[in-house]
């Protein structure tokens, strides 16, 4: 039986409709390593998802509502969805209660930090790369003896598709990777690993595919 991974959906709106969707990059990546991505939508029961799935994947997506970390929105923060913020926070709580692994990617890292009481820098101008998302553009240094270092060694090349980063680190989280500017690029805690870059766009890179394989192996335990 395939390992079942709950994948939080994301949201987009036009003038008439709201759309909830599962990013196929994540679903294809999970299928590639013989796991099954299970999209979880708002109004679905987070506790039931945590009971029936083996792990949780929190993908990239729109910014969080800054009110969640007690800030007024920067002018650049115009595209947030309260129903998705609530979905992510409920899923984090439910999977933590079941002691099941959580992997956060980009926004996923940010919402985990906020869930643990941390804050974000709302905008870093010109930080997101102009190159295609599949292109490696910078190096991150990884803390020795961390869970992430056991997967990727002490450095790796990554992409950069975000304009927000962690400011104050959440309680109980450990920063385990850093950019050359000193921004936090990865965090860990018990059963939690999250990265700021987008490894689902880099599965042609053996290091990044190994990150997902390690997550699935942990879920199978």
UniProtKB/TrEMBL annotation:
One of its GO terms (cellular component) is cytosol. It comes from Dielma fastidiosa. Gene3D superfamilies: 3.40.50.880. The keyword Transferase applies. SUPFAM superfamilies: Class I glutamine amidotransferase-like (SSF52317). The lineage of its organism: Bacteria, Bacillati, Bacillota, Erysipelotrichia, Erysipelotrichales. It comes from the Bacteria. This is Putative glutamine amidotransferase. GO terms for molecular function: hydrolase activity, acting on carbon-nitrogen (but not peptide) bonds, in linear amides; transferase activity. PANTHER family: GLUTAMINE AMIDOTRANSFERASE PB2B2.05-RELATED. Keywords: Glutamine amidotransferase, Transferase.
């Amino acid at each position: 039986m395939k390992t079942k991974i709950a994948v939080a959906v994301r949201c987009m709106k036009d003038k008439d409709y709201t759309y909830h969707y599962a990013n196929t990059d994540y679903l294809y990546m999970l299928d590639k390593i013989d796991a099954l991505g299970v999209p979880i939508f708002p109004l679905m029961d987070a506790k039931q998802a945590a009971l029936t799935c083996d792990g949780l994947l929190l993908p990239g997506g729109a910014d969080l509502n800054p009110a969640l970390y007690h800030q007024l929105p920067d002018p650049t923060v115009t595209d947030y969805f309260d129903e998705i913020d609530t979905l992510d926070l409920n899923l984090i709580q439910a999977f933590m209660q079941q002691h099941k692994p959580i992997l956060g990617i980009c926004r996923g890292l940010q919402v985990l930090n906020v869930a643990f009481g941390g804050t974000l820098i709302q905008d870093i101008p010109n930080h997101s790369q102009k190159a295609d998302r599949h292109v490696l553009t910078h190096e991150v240094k990884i803390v020795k003896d961390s869970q992430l270092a056991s997967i990727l060694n002490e450095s790796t090349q990554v992409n950069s598709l975000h304009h927000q980063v962690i400011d104050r680190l959440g309680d109980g989280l450990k920063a385990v990777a850093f950019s050359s500017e000193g921004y936090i690029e990865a965090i860990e805690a018990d059963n939690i690993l999250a990265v700021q870059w987008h490894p689902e766009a880099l599965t042609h890179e053996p290091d990044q595919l190994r990150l997902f394989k390690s997550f699935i192996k942990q879920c199978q335990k």
